[in-house]
Specification:
By secondary structure, this protein is an alpha/beta fold. The chain has one domain: Alpha/Beta hydrolase fold, catalytic domain (Rossmann fold, 3-Layer(aba) Sandwich). The protein contains eight helices and eight strands, in the order αβββααβααβαββαβα. The protein has an eight-stranded mixed beta sheet with strand order 1-2-4-3-5-6-7-8, sandwiched between helices.
Length: 235
């Protein structure tokens, strides 16, 4: 297993869902463009996709994408990969260390620390546009993205939540813009008790929310994914 290079500055912060890594002055030589494993862990690793248009002198948009329950890094990267080249978005997709994300199973901690490690790897090597830095996901990954996005709104400018079930922020920092989509026929996470409650709550809290319902099940239609990318591009 690759040695964990991340020195957690404050373990109490990770238990609250606080990410401690921030975009850095580049300190490491960039790897090749395209898709590759970070090799940060032996069993449940992270994937990074660097688009064809990336140039260090032109900071790219960045999206941390989180898979649903029972998923893996490939599922996370696949959420927006088809749009990454045209939109010039760097994608980072870690795998949860258990079947789903830590706070859903128990409490914040192990996944927050692993995400910090993966972010550190990416930020050391690639120039990131801080005004277009998103966290997103599908299903449990969307719930986790909403939660981390609200907790770390001083890092993330945008949150993309495809069919979330809930949100569990320990605190709220900053005011990221939020995109939420949900199928009216979703039987896994029914819309009435999920997004139809979440979106109004966020709006009442002062967040700018673009909310989309679609005629469908627990999925992400192409047009919904495309709209989320265009929304993200427009800042």
């Amino acid at each position: 297993m690759t040695e964990n290079r991340l020195q957690i500055k404050d373990s109490k912060a990770s238990k609250k869902g606080r990410l401690q890594t921030r975009p850095l002055t580049l300190t490491k030589e960039a790897a090749a463009l395209g898709l590759y494993q970070l090799r940060l862990a032996e069993k449940r690793d992270a994937l990074l996709y660097v688009p064809k248009k990336y140039k260090a002198e032109n900071p790219a948009a960045f999206a941390l994408m989180l898979h649903g329950a029972g998923g893996n890094a490939e599922h996370g990267i696949g959420l927006l990969r088809q749009f990454a080249d045209d939109a010039n978005i760097i994608l980072l997709a870690p795998a949860s260390q258990a079947a789903t994300w830590d706070v859903i199973a128990d409490t914040y901690g192990v996944d927050v620390e692993f995400i910090d490690l993966a972010l550190e790897y990416a930020f050391e090597r690639f120039a990131v546009d801080k005004s277009r830095l998103a966290v997103g996901g599908f299903s449990d990954g969307a719930s986790y993205a909403l939660s981390l996005g609200l907790i770390n709104g001083d890092l993330f400018s945008h949150v993309i939540a495809f069919s979330p079930g809930f949100m569990a922020p320990t605190e709220q920092t900053g005011v990221p813009r939020i995109y939420i989509s949900h199928g009216t026929g979703d039987r896994v996470l029914p819309i009435e008790r999920c997004s139809r409650r979440i979106a109004p709550q966020l709006k009442r809290g002062g967040y700018e929310v673009l909310y989309r319902e679609f005629d469908g099940a627990h999925t992400i239609p192409h047009e919904i994914a495309l709209e989320s990318v265009r929304w993200f591009e427009a800042k």
